[in-house]
Specification:
By secondary structure, the protein is of the alpha+beta class. 35% of the residues lie in helices and 21% in strands. The chain contains nine helices and twelve strands. The longest helix is centred in the middle third of the chain and has 35 residues, at 141-175. The chain starts with a helix and ends with a helix.
C-alpha cells in the first residue's frame, strides 16, 4: 500500500509538476525529541534522533519487559513529530516534497478512495497522467492548494471531534458508578511529571492522559499509608525523572513509568463539560500485569506505526479486566472469531498474493 501510494505520487507529480496532490511530512525539530531521549534513559535505552532511519533503529531496540513502556516511548516519538499535510506541488519547492515519517521523496494517498476525498482527486490525476481521461478538467494549482487547506482543516476537526467523543462517553460510562465499584479502581502508568503531581495513562480504558494531583489547592500533599492516602502538610520536589513528596509522615518518590493505583470518578462543572477525575489510592500497581518471558515479537515498521498513530495512544485491554461476564457476552454478541472471519480470509488472500509477487 505504501509503495503503491509512493509510485502514484511519482507518476502524477512528474506528469503534473505544478498541480498534483501530494502529502508532505516535514522534519521534526530536534529539541522536540528531548523528552523522548531523557525518558528512554530511565530504562537504559539510547535513542538516536539525527535521522528517521536512526530513530527507527533505536526504537526497535527499545523493548522493555513492560509492554506499556514500549507503547509510551513510541507515543513520545509521535508527539515530537510534525503533522503531515496535503499540498499542491506548485505551492512549495520540489525539495520539500518528501515524507519524513516514511522516508520517501514523494508520497500521496491513493489506495482508499471510498473513505478519503483526497484519494479521489489523486485517482483523477492518475487517469489523466496515463491518458485514460483528459487533463482539461483538472484543478489548477491555486484551486488545489485551497482544497488542500480545506481537507487539512477538516482532518484536524475530525480528530478533535473523535477525542471529544471519547472523553464524553468515558464520562458517561463512569457517571452513575459508585467510587468503590471495581471498574473504577484501575492500574495507571506515570507518563509525565508536573510541579503538583503526575500525568498517567490508563491502559484498561485506553485513557491516554489523566492528571493525578499530589498537592492540593490548599498546599497539602498526599502521603500513601497502609490504610490509603492521607493529606497532610509538606512539599514536592521534582528532578529530571522523578518527583518526591515530603510530608510530616515521611517521603515518597514517584518515577516515570511507575505503576500506581488510581480511582476514576466524574467531576461536574457548571461552566465546563464534565470530566474524569483521577485520585491516587496507592503508589503500587493495582494488580500484577507483567508477564515474564513473553514479548511481542511481531512489530511493523516503526516509523509507519508512529506516523499512523500520531497523537493517539491505544492500549488493548485484557479481556479479564473487563469483567467476569465479558467473555460470555463477547461469544454471544461480539464479532466473528478470527478463524471464521471473512475479513481475515480476505487478508490471508492478500498476504498470499504479496508473497507470490
Amino acid at each position: 500500500m505504501i509503495f503503491a501510494n509512493h509510485w502514484v505520487a511519482k507518476k502524477i507529480s512528474d506528469s503534473f509538476p505544478n498541480q498534483a496532490l501530494l502529502r508532505h511530512h516535514p522534519l521534526p525539530r530536534q529539541e522536540y525529541f528531548d523528552n523522548l531521549v531523557s525518558c528512554a534513559k530511565v530504562k537504559g535505552f539510547d535513542v538516536q534522533t539525527h535521522s528517521n532511519k536512526m530513530l527507527a533503529e533505536s526504537l526497535e531496540k527499545c523493548v522493555d519487559k513492560d509492554p506499556i513502556v514500549n507503547k509510551l516511548l513510541r507515543t513520545l516519538a509521535t508527539q515530537a513529530m510534525s503533522v503531515a499535510q496535503y499540498f499542491s506541488t506548485g505551492s512549495i519547492s520540489r525539495d520539500q516534497f518528501f515524507h519524513y515519517g516514511l522516508a520517501l521523496d514523494r508520497y500521496t494517498h491513493y489506495t482508499s478512495p471510498i473513505r478519503r476525498y483526497a484519494d479521489i482527486i489523486v485517482h483523477r490525476l492518475l487517469l489523466a497522467a496515463i491518458k485514460v481521461q483528459s487533463s482539461s478538467n483538472l484543478l489548477s494549482n491555486r484551486e488545489l492548494e485551497e482544497l488542500s487547506h480545506h481537507i487539512n482543516n477538516k482532518h484536524r476537526a475530525s480528530q478533535h471531534a473523535q477525542r471529544s467523543s471519547q472523553e464524553l462517553f468515558q464520562t458517561l460510562y463512569f457517571k452513575d458508578k459508585s467510587p468503590e465499584d471495581e471498574s473504577c479502581i484501575v492500574d495507571a502508568v506515570i507518563f509525565q511529571l508536573r510541579a503538583n503531581g503526575v500525568v498517567v495513562v490508563v491502559p484498561r480504558y485506553g485513557i491516554r492522559k489523566g492528571p493525578v494531583y499530589l498537592r492540593g489547592k490548599d498546599g497539602q500533599v498526599v502521603y500513601i499509608t497502609e490504610d490509603g492516602p492521607e493529606w497532610t502538610g509538606g512539599g514536592i520536589s521534582r528532578q529530571d525523572h522523578e518527583l518526591t513528596v515530603t510530608s510530616v509522615l515521611g517521603s515518597q518518590t514517584y518515577r516515570l513509568f511507575d505503576h500506581i493505583t488510581v480511582r476514576l470518578s466524574v467531576q461536574s462543572s457548571h461552566a465546563h463539560a464534565a470530566s474524569l477525575k483521577f485520585d491516587i489510592l496507592s503508589n503500587r500497581p493495582h494488580k500484577v500485569h507483567l508477564q515474564e518471558n513473553k514479548q511481542d515479537t511481531h512489530r511493523t515498521d516503526t516509523m509507519k506505526e508512529m506516523y499512523d498513530s500520531a497523537e493517539e495512544l491505544h492500549v488493548r485491554p485484557d479481556p479479564d479486566d473487563l469483567g467476569v461476564d465479558f467473555r460470555s457476552l463477547k461469544s454471544q454478541y461480539g464479532q466473528t472469531a478470527d478463524s471464521m472471519s471473512f475479513y481475515n480470509l480476505l487478508l490471508s488472500f492478500r498476504e498470499s498474493a504479496l508473497l507470490d509477487t
